[in-house]
Description:
The complex is a heterodimer. Chain A has strands at residues 4-5, 10-14, 19-21, 24-25, 32-39, 46-52, 60-61, 64-69, 74-79, 88-96, 104-106, 110-115. In chain A, 0% of the residues lie in helices and 51% in strands. In chain A, strands 2, 5, 6, 10, 11 and 12 form a six-stranded mixed sheet that branches. By secondary structure, chain B is an all-beta fold. Helix content of chain B is 0%, strand content 51%. The chains are: A mainly beta, B mainly beta. Chain A binds chain B through residues 33, 35, 37, 42-47, 50, 52, 91, 95, 98, 100-104, 106-109, and chain B through 1, 31-32, 34, 38, 42-44, 46, 49, 51, 57, 91, 93, 95, 103-111, 113.
Amino acid sequence: AQKITQTQPGMFVQEKEAVTLDCTYDTSDQSYGLFWYKQPSSGEMIFLIYQGSYDEQNATEGRYSLNFQKARKSANLVISASQLGDSAMYFCAMREGWASNYQLIWGAGTKLIIKP
Amino acid sequence: GAVVSQHPSRVICKSGTSVKIECRSLDFQATTMFWYRQFPKQSLMLMATSNEGSKATYEQGVEKDKFLINHASLTLSTLTVTSAHPEDSSFYICSARDAAGAQETQYFGPGTRLLVL
Lengths: 116, 117
């Protein structure tokens, strides 16, 4: 079964609009973490934001915020005031437990295209 | 954020040759590094977990004799694709965790595009 599900393979959004990228996860662990990474066409993976399962407040980093709904097991990324440079692939990933060499479980990604 | 470099960024080689890819953490020490492979329009596929001073842990289906990993220091891990074949052509990307920092974040290198002719 998929542990990380990103249901939107692609999205087109008008510049300056807000964007919500969906991510749902499946885990039986009490301790876990959720990440969002951005991958532009150059290929590099850029860390955007992190949410721990015990964090009571939604994480925010500049224009990025994570809408964490624990009961629904969702961790959607919200980008406010989108810019042309936001066009990229976006991946949601999850860390389970606290093993020192934990692995990340990756979603399939969402391709976001910002229209001028 | 922390900086991870990869070298080379692109490599074209003939079938049967070996290719070494380096992954360096530039401003932190990394006890653990990860090697991923990514096919076009797909997500990252973890190949192996590289631990400083010990043998790498390979994921199921990844040939350890073909993809040699060496993590000789806290700032350097290398992936050697031995006897490369065209099907090994892919985007290889490494990541590293800061041994002294928060446990949460993996920082990624810029990736290496390998083309085997």
